[in-house]
Design goal:
Layout: H1 15-24, H2 33-44, E1 48-54, E2 71-76, H3 81-94, E3 99-114, E4 119-132, H4 138-152, H5 159-182, H6 192-203, E5 209-219, E6 225-235, H7 242-253, E7 257-265, E8 271-279, H8 285-298
Antiparallel strand pairs: 1-2, 2-4, 3-4, 3-7, 5-6, 6-8, 7-8
Helix pairs in contact: 2-4, 3-4, 6-8, 7-8
């Protein structure tokens, strides 16, 4: 098992930074032989960098030295989260029946100035995790990754375009910040628990979402005790960009929240996207509720940019 493959305490956003990091990689970690080829395929693709991997438990290996099943986690450069989403959906279709779980997670640690692109961005990581049912699925994963690379990247945008888009997205987030500070969100004067209850009530009226729920837990997945809440819902409308919600929450809250998107199979062979939001810093409850409500109210970023739409009062 090769954890912390993707660096936790530095920002890797450009191809030059990725190239520099990969040169140091052999001295940093040893990749499991069974998953090494899949790791190499991902790292050879533009815009992607593997985060962690494991070939799965073998019969003759001590218990606990490997994960029970093979897995591969993949990060993306330039905050091109839509590209990561595209890879996730592609793999779900190509590996149907071979995937144990497929999920997208996001986290943020600190806001730093990213010198190569001269933008102030969160150390925001969004990564795709693919868990296979067995080691027999690894060759199929390799073939699917090759197929995706072959059909996607001969026509994809160049690096300069991606750097410019990163800067534009950062500017968009700044505009959203200014609008948020200038408007009084409807949740501002509510207690933390009431603001979350009001959020769920509003989300349930949105026809693009379903199975909206709110529950309190004694501690979250980080082991934090106290008042912790989980908001979950399914996204039925493909135009809703879940990446935008993740970036909004992780950029504004910079901690105190864990966000996850999972792909769940249906009886028809398709999948549903389930969003799981865990809040454990209740001082941010009104902001969390305001941002989530605003994302749900606006819908897809491409259709109605967040910074052009006033918040509900």
């Amino acid at each position: 098992m090769n954890d912390n493959f993707y660096p936790k305490n530095q920002i890797i956003l450009t191809e030059k930074e990725k190239e520099s990091f990969l040169k140091q990689l052999p001295s940093m970690v040893s990749i499991d032989p069974g998953i090494a080829n899949a790791v190499q395929i991902v790292n050879n693709m533009p815009f992607f960098l593997t985060q962690s991997s494991c070939e799965g438990q073998k019969m003759n290996q001590p218990v606990g030295t490997h994960m029970p099943v093979p897995y591969l986690s993949i990060g993306v450069l330039y905050n091109a989260f839509d590209l990561l989403d595209e890879l996730a959906e592609f793999l779900w279709v190509e590996l149907r029946g071979k995937i144990h779980t497929l999920s997208i997670d996001a986290e943020v640690q600190a806001i730093n100035k990213h010198l190569p692109t001269n933008t102030e961005v969160p150390n925001f990581q969004k990564y795709l995790s693919i868990y296979l049912k067995s080691r027999r699925g690894i060759p199929l994963l390799e073939e699917a990754l090759k197929k995706f690379s072959k059909q996607e990247f001969p026509h994809f945008e160049n690096q300069r375009f991606m750097e410019n888009r990163l800067a534009e997205r950062n500017d968009s987030m700044l505009m959203m910040t200014n609008r948020l500070m200038n408007d009084m969100p409807i949740y501002m004067n509510l207690s933390p628990s009431l603001s979350l209850q009001e959020l769920v009530k509003n989300l349930k009226t949105n026809p693009s979402l379903s199975s909206v729920s709110l529950r309190e837990v004694e501690e979250n997945v980080m082991g934090n005790p106290g008042e912790n809440y989980i908001v979950e819902f399914y996204v039925k409308n493909s135009e809703y960009n879940i990446s935008d919600l993740f970036q909004l929450l992780c950029s504004f809250l910079t901690g105190g929240v864990i966000v996850n998107q999972s792909f769940q199979a249906t009886s028809s062979g398709n999948y549903l996207k389930k969003v799981h939001l865990s809040l454990f810093d209740m001082d941010n409850a009104f902001l969390f509720a305001s941002l989530t409500d605003h994302w749900a109210n606006v819908g897809a970023w491409n259709r109605s940019p967040y910074w052009e739409v006033p918040l509900r009062k």
